[in-house]
């Protein structure tokens, strides 16, 4: 039972990451390769504040989200004024810079050894010490993130995002400040990624830089592509599929080394199949290959 609850908790955390990227890629048409960087910023900020400064869980989460929002401006403001290609390059560079800092600034982040002893989250005066309790917390955050994405992706604000995704020149001709919309939606996306990082840090109680590499960003991108971008159900479905896949391989009795290699082959095969034959993903509304 504890193992099943663990899988559900990890799935809820990845659902937050997937919907955060879909807010950017699926609704605004911007592809970021830095979701793992902001995921890591949220995790390390919350861990450092609670372990070294004795801050509360809520303070750690809010500070991590604020830090991610502020740093997102360093990526979005210079690059989005040029073209979307520059944004992808800038996000990739930011991802590599953040990983290098986490891995080498030992005095602050612990370097490769990471940060152990992260306390359990405190909620309403008590601490979440059980898998069932943490699942309720993670699922609540996932639902709230889902509702934020749904609200931003609908209504007048969402219609401007979709107009930019389909034809930015036309959106500008209609008098819409596309750069402002891009900057704000990227900030919202990074804040949700930081929220997922804070939850992850307090769940596993130990973090190190290897959990926040560019491969983690590619995994989140894969979830959006396979589930389907621009769809409310696509990213959560993609997260559930890619989180459960390694567990299904493990339950099949394969050796760990063989299961890891086979997982990468299946990931690659699914991506190639989706991009060639189903570019909108399983239930998506927007094609990455348009």
Provide a descriptive summary of the structure in words.
With 290 residues, the protein is mainly alpha-helical. The chain has one domain. The protein contains 12 helices and 2 strands; from the N terminus they run H-H-H-H-H-E-E-H-H-H-H-H-H-H. A two-stranded antiparallel ribbon has the order 1-2. A hairpin with a 2-residue loop joins strand 1 (122-123) and strand 2 (126-127). It is globular. The model has no long low-confidence stretch (mean pLDDT 87).
Describe the structure concisely.
The chain has 290 residues and is an all-alpha fold. It is built from twelve helices and two strands, in the order H-H-H-H-H-E-E-H-H-H-H-H-H-H. The longest helix is centred in the middle third of the chain and has 27 residues, at 178-204.
């Amino acid at each position: 039972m504890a193992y099943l609850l663990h899988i559900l908790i990890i799935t809820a955390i990845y659902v937050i990451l997937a919907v955060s990227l879909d807010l950017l890629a699926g609704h605004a048409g911007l592809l970021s390769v830095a979701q793992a960087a902001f995921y890591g910023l949220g995790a390390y900020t919350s861990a450092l504040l609670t372990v070294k400064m004795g801050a509360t869980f809520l303070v750690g989460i809010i500070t991590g989200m604020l830090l991610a929002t502020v740093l997102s401006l360093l990526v979005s403001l210079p690059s989005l004024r040029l073209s979307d290609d520059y944004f992808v390059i800038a996000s990739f560079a930011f991802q590599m810079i953040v990983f290098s800092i986490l891995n080498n600034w030992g005095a602050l982040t612990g370097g490769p050894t990471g940060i152990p002893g992260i306390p359990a989250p405190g909620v309403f005066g008590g601490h979440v010490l059980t898998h069932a309790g943490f699942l309720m917390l993670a699922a609540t955050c996932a639902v709230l993130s889902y509702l934020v994405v749904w609200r931003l992706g609908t209504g007048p604000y969402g219609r401007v995002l979709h107009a930019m995704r389909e034809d930015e020149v036309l959106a500008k001709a209609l008098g819409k400040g596309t750069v402002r919309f891009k900057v704000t939606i990227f900030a919202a996306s990074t804040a949700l990624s930081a929220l997922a990082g804070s939850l992850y840090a307090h769940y596993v109680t130990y973090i190190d830089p290897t959990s926040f590499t560019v491969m983690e960003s590619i995994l989140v991108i894969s979830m959006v592509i396979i589930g389907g971008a621009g769809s409310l159900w696509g990213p959560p479905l993609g997260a559930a599929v890619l989180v459960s896949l390694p567990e299904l391989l493990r339950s099949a009795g394969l050796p760990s080394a063989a299961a890891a290699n086979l997982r990468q082959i299946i990931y690659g095969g699914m991506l190639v199949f989706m991009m060639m034959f189903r570019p909108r993903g399983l239930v998506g509304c927007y094609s990455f290959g348009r």
